[in-house]
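Hey all, sorry for the wall of text incoming. These are the four entities for the joint prediction.
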Amino acid sequence: MTLEHDTVRETLIDATIALMDEGGLQAVKARALAQAVGVSVGTIYNLFGNVDGLVLAANQRIYADLNTVGQANIGPIEERLAQRIAQGLVGDTARDRVRERLLGLSEVYVDFVAANASRWSAVLTFDRNRSTAETPEGYVEQLDAMIGIIGRVLEAAPRCADIGVRHQTARALWSSVHGIVTLTYFSGDVATSRDRTWALIVILVSAVADGLFVEPA
Amino acid sequence: MTLEHDTVRETLIDATIALMDEGGLQAVKARALAQAVGVSVGTIYNLFGNVDGLVLAANQRIYADLNTVGQANIGPIEERLAQRIAQGLVGDTARDRVRERLLGLSEVYVDFVAANASRWSAVLTFDRNRSTAETPEGYVEQLDAMIGIIGRVLEAAPRCADIGVRHQTARALWSSVHGIVTLTYFSGDVATSRDRTWALIVILVSAVADGLFVEPA
DNA sequence: CGCTTTTTTGAACGGCGTTCAAGTGCAAAA
DNA sequence: TTTTGCACTTGAACGCCGTTCAAAAAAGCG
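and here's what came out:
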């Protein structure tokens, strides 16, 4: 049945993420998945083509989770910004608002990574392989949605008046925060990962935000 | 003998990089390496512990190459900066000089990646696994050296007066450019990789450099 | 109910990293 | 020169991996 069919799909994705949480991407193996869900290894190949296809589907859901968290936090970010301005913690210029919003988004991202460290590490580790499996539909859209959120914040920055530049800036910012998380969060002492990562992100995002209000040379 | 011993070590590292160039990290396999060099698989384990250890040694040499290229280009970057100032292409403020130097370093990095795409991709793909093999000596030092170069450029920036902040800023910048390269260079059309990557780096590095001369909120 | 089609199954296959008993080369001892 | 000792090399063998596909089971159908 189609219903049962989709149920098994979802259950396999669940099992994949569970294995990622336990032992990282290395722990995601065909036989372990089959045994965990109660199907044979062949079923994985019927539903996802191969193991990479299943990992890709799991990655897509993890991306969707991040996107959901991001979307859900736009409101709170605005509220916190208003509070900080009211309390005089930050200024009330366009520059200050852009910087604080970008920091708010970054904090949401870092919190997500901290709360989903193992599975996020698996996503980052895998994405570099691509392998044979083709990217499932909606995969790119998730990323574009997140970059779109950043782009909307950047509308207030003089250097981002052009929509092309704005989109590039949003993508560059996303890539940068991603790079810091990749090199800083997932290295060194786990206990200090979040703090070390956040410190670098604050420095970078603040500098970028402020720089976007400086007129170019 | 020890001499022969070291020769085999170097030859194996050569073969590893050659395989990376041909087929990426996936092509680096114990049997293929052994056959290419003319030793048995066991020798790899005697000399490097396991295949990961050999890959790590190869990565270290690739890092050293990048470092060498970086060091060798500091002079030319200064010359080009002086020329651009003389020709009126950029200003002569501390802000302009920091920005142009950072862009110069970034360009060296992007050129290196473009010229060594396959093996650099292998380095980035592998570093996320770490696996069992311990990092060879001098590995961390190579990275610190490159961050040190960036840090020296940042000495002219007001926000980086504090040495701790300066070091963090240098690391954040390195991570950011790394992130842009990872997400942009190694995705999409190969023919446009360099241009797309460079466009994002210019936007980001320029904004950061300019932002570092804005007094904080 | 029999017949056809679809889906599931899991033993088998090739390839991988890794191991380790057996072999090899070579310098020191006799 | 011959023998001994030993550090190093070897490659067949082992276990595990992703993947396949003939056979079995299940589902659809008149």
